[in-house]
Amino acid sequence: MKMKSVKAFLSIVTAASLAVSAPAAVFAEDAAAQEAEAQDSDGEATAEDFTIAFDGGELSVTNQTTQTIKEAKLVEAAADDSEEADNSEETADASKEAKMDLVLTEEDGTEHTFQDVTVDKWKDAVLVNSYEFLYINYKDESGKDQEAAETADERTFDEPITMYVSANVHVRKKADKESESLKVAALGDEFKVIAAVPGWFKVENGDDTGYVFHSYLTEDKAAVDALVKAKQEADAAAAQAAAAAAAQAAQQQAAAAAAQPAQKTEVSRQAYDDCDGSGHGYYEITWSDGSVTYENY
Question: Could you tell me where the Acidic residues compositional bias lies (predicted)?
Answer without folding.
Answer: 78-92
